[in-house]
Structures are given as C-alpha cells and as structure tokens.
Amino acid sequence: MLMKKLMRWLSLDRQRLAFGLFALMLGVPSALNAQAPRGNAGIVLAPIPAWVTLAMRLVPEEQLESQALRDYAQITMSAQMRGALVSSLDERVLTLRRLTQRLIKETPHWSGSAAAWRWEVNLVRDSQINAFCMPGGKVVVYTGLLQTLGLSRDELAVVLGHEMAHALREHSRQRLAKSLAAQGVSRSVGVVASGVLGVDPRLTDRLAIEGANLWALKFSREEETEADLVGLDLAARAGFDPRAGLTLWRKMAQTSSREAAQWLSTHPSHENRIREIELHLPQVMPLFEQAEHLERVRTYHLDEAPRAKP
Q1: Fewer CB within 10 Å, N or C, the chain?
Q2: How far is Cα of residue 210 from the mean position of the Cα atoms in its chain?
Q3: How far is Cα 169 from Cα 48, in angstroms, rounded to an integer?
Q4: Beta-bridge mates of residue 120
C-alpha cells in the first residue's frame, strides 16, 4: 500500500530517476540513454550511462553554470586585485582568445548549447602549470603553463581543447550528480523518496557545497582520457595538427617540477596518454587534412570547390 501511494505521488520523470538510481544500487543495466552512432568521422565515444544521465537531473545545468559564473568572477577579481590578471592587450591573451574562438566554432559536434555560452578566456600570472574550463565556457590559463612548456600554437590548441572538453562533456555535472546519487542510494527507500527525489532541502544545500570551487574538481582518469580525445577532435576540426598531442605530453613527461606533478596527480600516465593518442590519430587526421584543404581554398581563392566535410 505504501509503495502504491509513493508511485502515485511520483511523476513519470521521478519514477525514471528512481529506477535509474535503484538500477545502480542493484547493478541492473539500463538502455534509457541509448544513442545513435555519430558516424565514422572523428572521435566516437560511448554514450553516458543511463543511470548517470538520470542522476544528472539532481544537478540543474542552469544552477551549475550560475555557480561557475560566480566562481569565475571571484578568480578573475582576485587575480586583478593582486596584479596577476594579464592585460587583454597582451599578445599571449590575444593568441589564447583567437585559438579558443576557432575551437568554439567546432563545439556543436559535441554540445548543442556550447555555441551559445558566454565564453571568456583569461590569463593569470602564476607559476603553476595549469588551465581549466568551467561549466558555461569560462576558461583560465596560468602563465606557468606557457612559460614552462614553451607550447607551439598546435600544442596550445590541444590543451585548450582538452579543457573545453571537460565542459562540453559536463564532467563537473556528472561528478556532482554521481556524488549526490550515491548519497541517496545509500539511504533507505523512504529517505530516497523524500531526499533524492526533491523533497529534502538538505540535498540541494549539498549541491551548493559540492558545486563551490568548480575549478578545483579532480576528474577521474577515464574523464581525463575522454577529454584528451575530444580535445584532439576539436583541434583537428579547427585546423590544428592533432599530432601536437604527442609532443605536448612528451614535453610534460620531461617536466619534473612540483607544479606539474601536482596537476598530473589524477591524470593518466604520460605513456598511457601517448598510447591513446597514437591509437586514435587515424580517426582525427582526416579532419585536420580536410580543415587544411578548406583553409587553402579560402586563403588562395582557389576555384576548386571545397570537399564536403566528413
């Protein structure tokens, strides 16, 4: 009787969410998130697991992006107050923004909403070897990354593509959703109904706590590998040589500074990253070659009709 009353109270969406969460707890597979193949061109990733998609409803996209905007404002204001925010007229900042704009044009391949984000790119004077892209397209790069590694244009595009990929694939939202779902599933059926499904306000309070300092989130090795591959895809589509991913991580492997070791503490090993890039280069090199061809046609006003994009 109690379960009948509960199911009548739940909306269809909440029933699906409850099913997904309990499927996670019981190890039951679900096909609610089945996706059609994207085709043979470029990187193809497995769909996000159904239970993760359901759990992501616990973390509204708008709320996460709003939190990211506040955090980003805090970072840039703090950097400006201590004289560490590099001027928008600085050639390094102009380069970062030009590269990012080219990558943004290719984001519709990975996110339907990213082209409409209010993208921002800033450079902060700091020795740490780091960069990040927050939900909604807020990008910060530290000068230590540029100075220590001496990145080429293509290598820098691969780094930016990697960080943008975290936002495009909603890795922050996924991690917060998994955390909240795990908390809910560990409770009794009654608490799941009242807490996970929207009644218990402590759950949304937890979201605010977990959502703070989004730039400090540590992604899993699986998410880092996914960001590597999506970043390569973006760079290749934008006309940057994806083979720069190999030289980038070889440079990182030769960097033994404490900052680099800290940044890479949750990342795949250099060897694994290079192996994955080598494995997937055949998927992205045609995209790069096509982008080069179209650029030559535009630059030299050739009569040759551009080939259709793959």
Answers
A1: N
A2: 17
A3: 9
A4: 138
Q: Which residue type, as a one-letter code, is found at position 158?
A: V
Reading the chain (310 residues) residue by residue, the pLDDT tens digits are 433 443 343 344 444 454 455 454 444 443 333 333 344 479 999 888 888 888 888 888 888 899 899 999 999 999 999 999 999 999 999 999 999 999 999 999 999 999 899 999 999 999 988 999 999 999 999 999 999 999 999 999 999 999 999 999 999 999 888 877 766 554 433 444 444 444 444 544 444 445 456 666 678 888 999 999 999 999 999 999 999 999 999 998 887 554 454 445 556 677 888 999 999 999 999 999 999 888 887 877 765 554 555 5
| Stated pTM of the model | 0.77
Crossing angle of helices 171-185 and 153-168, rounded to 10°: 30
What residues are labeled active site? 163
CA distance 172 to 153: 27
Give the 3-state DSSP-derived string for the chain, with helices as H, strands as E and coil as C. Answer: CHHHHHHHHCCHHHHHHHHHHHHHHHCCCCCCCCCCCCCCCCCCCCCCCHHHHHHHHHCCHHHHHHHHHHHHHHHHHHHHHCCCECCCCCHHHHHHHHHHHHHHCCHHHCCCCHHHCCCEEEEECCCCCCEEEECCCEEEEEHHHHHHHCCCHHHHHHHHHHHHHHHHCCHHHHHHHHHHHHHHHCCCHHHHHHHHCCCCHHHHHHHHHHHCCHHHCCCCHHHHHHHHHHHHHHHHHCCCCCCHHHHHHHHHHHCCCHHHHHHCCCCCCHHHHHHHHHHHHHHHHHHHHHHHHHHHHHHCCCCCCCCCCC
